[in-house]
Amino acid sequence: GALSDNIVPEPFVAVPAMQFGKEAREKYYLLEDTTCFLNHGSFGAVPRPVFDQRNLCIAQMEHEPEKWYRHLLDDTLLKNRKCLAEFINCDPEDVVFAENVTEAINDVLWSFPLAKDDGVLVTNLGYNSVNTIASEVCKARGATYHEMPLLFPLAGNVLTPEAVVKLYADYINDHRD
């Protein structure tokens, strides 16, 4: 049967704050009961509303590819950019969608106007792809790449925001070029 025009995905809608834990997993995720998924940053396990909207997009695209790509895709992306921009309080022109965090970081770092006297600071705990991108951008632009070691336990076994800020400040002060 034909898909109706109302299959077009709805723009981003903020959901109310939720408690984490078993109830949230059951309500918002398709994960197996025995799965304790901690790596949402790499792949998979999107919330059900996201999963459902993605499937609606795929269904519309597969049902009428010409209509989807020529008439619906750009408008749908623009509506979602506007909604997300309102949610995060910025101009829609400043919102860009990316396939994943690695792609987004790659785009941002390569577009940033780094020069010879600039530096980029990451930690040894950074995602390897991100650290590699930062290193390559610095090498290409003549900027300095710094990888700050974060060793645990921290001095005094205290992990407070202030302690972490002090680690960064100390590293920066010790490595002024």
Question: Would you mind describing this structure in some detail?
Answer:
The protein is mainly alpha-helical. 49% of the residues lie in helices and 6% in strands. It has 6 helices and 2 strands. A two-stranded parallel ribbon has the order 1-2. Strand 1, helix 5 (128-141) and strand 2 (144-148) form a beta-alpha-beta unit.
Give the low-pLDDT segments. Answer: none
Described by strand count, sense and barrel closure, the largest sheet is: 2 strands, parallel
Head-to-tail CA distance between termini:
67 Å
The averaged pLDDT comes out at 84
- Kindly state the percentage of residues in helix: 40-55%
Structural class: mainly alpha
Q: What is the N-to-C order of secondary-structure elements (H for helix, E for strand)? A: HHHHEHEH
Order of strands across the biggest sheet?
1-2
- Spatial extent as radius of gyration: 21 Å
The percentage of residues in β strands lies in 5-15%
Shape by Cα distribution:
extended
Number of helical runs?
A: 6
Strand segment count:
2
List descriptors.
extended, 177 residues, 49% helix, 6% strand, mainly alpha
Please sum up the structure shown:
The chain is mainly α and about 180 residues long.
Helices and strands, with pairings:
Blueprint: H1 22-28, H2 48-63, H3 65-88, H4 101-111, E1 119-123, H5 128-141, E2 144-148, H6 161-174
Parallel strand pairs: 1-2
